[in-house]
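pasting for ref
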Amino acid sequence: MIATTRRAALLSAFATVGAAALARPAFARQTGKAGAAVDQFAQEVMAAFPDEPGLGITVVEDGEITLAKGYGVRRLGGPDKVTDSTLFGVASNTKAFTAAALAMLVEEGRLAWDDPVTKYLPAFEMSDPIVTRLMTVRDLLCHRSGLTLGAGDLMIWPNPIHTRADIVAGLKYLPIGGQFRGGYAYDNVLYVAAGEVIAALTGAPWEVFIQKRILDPLKMTDSVPLPSLIGDRPRAEPHARMGPPVRGLGPQTVLPFDGSFDSAGAAGGLNASPRDIGKWMQVQLGLGTAPGGVKLWTEASGREMWKPQTITAWSDGPTADNPVRASLQAYALGWFVNDHRGEKIVWHTGGLAGFISYTGLLPGRKSGIMVMTNAEEAPVFRSLRYGGPDRLQGRSDFDWIASSKKVQAEADAKLVKDAAEAMTPKGGGANGGAPPTLPLAAYAGTYRDPWYGTVTVSVAGKGKKTSLKIAFDKTPALRGALETFDGDTFKTRFDDRSQEDAFVVFAVKDGAVTGATMRAVSPLADFSYDYQDLKLVKT
């Protein structure tokens, strides 16, 4: 749900630097509190990457919160400092809350993990009737449905008006691109369905259950389950590099805050502070029991949520360039699970526009780290998501800052090359691209996709000033100019320049436009801009 760093956060856990090992011999193994080591490292990261506006970091050691702190500022160039009470959008780190809510209902005997979803949502339907019958509550949480990566995300991102009922109803039109329970592809829409299972059983929306059954008992008084509930609480402002030439490059920019993510709350709605999130980490590490004896779920449920369900990746293990590369990685229920330098780590990442976050738990030590950032800065995020757990293990013998700078430099160079190639028309006309095969007015009309809804192309101006406009009718942020590019391929230029533009490829038959397909312009566009899944038919 953001561009480069969200994709990296979810998909590149096994990436290597491709260079010699970057040792830091000046650092000895830490002998003091991990919280102090992480605090020092966070300051080094902020100094190494001065474009990062702010951070919120929390450390739990042996069940005790030893660090809950803010770094930098809430808004680039602004006076407000990030503190331990500043709210950050934690995005997909919310998924573990949804899994925990379901676990609590399982313990109450109100559902079973392997019950069919249709038992609780009779109207639930996938595009394959066999998958519909077989889909269980457990399947909703572990990314093995057969849906493609990010399928249906345009129903939840960016700022659409689809309701939760719309999202669940749209599932039956999303194509199954893989084998049910036969592989891994990350999705968000099925977590929305999981939230609706909770609502169906309890008679109250997902966010009410999360507030009453998790946030309130843990006294997470800063945090809210949905961004629309933030009100006047202190919050970090989102930032990203918006180009040129594409998102991920250029100067740091303050983004509009997205306060309308409520429909997808169960997939990514939580906003939390550093001091609050430590309480959540404590109850996780306590397998359902928080300090003081507050018990939210049993140890058996805690272990069930950490049990691997879907293999997501594998490798030959650590290398000199990447000493934490796992040999095997899996998805559990709202969590990833793999090894980190010989120990089990339970973790997740999250990303919304201008926010990326990471939770890493080392159950064997009852220790963990949460990193929250208010910018799409991949090297900052990478440094902390690997260097932080290292310090929980009492070590700092690898220079993650230098490594991440190198990785980012290589990625930026590739992005510039790939973006230039993607934005170069191949038609061979005077400006590189061929002219449209039909008059511009012929492309105007309403185009319908069965799961998303309608996209409207309209004519603006007259004569030589004639142009086209495009509007995703359920997504106000995706509206703007539709420019000629190469023959019957056009390119959007959305008025909101924080959004990812798309190529629109019109299908022409017998001199008439019959429909269109789309794809993102940027080769590194976030997968939640799943334009490629649209199959638009002109009505």
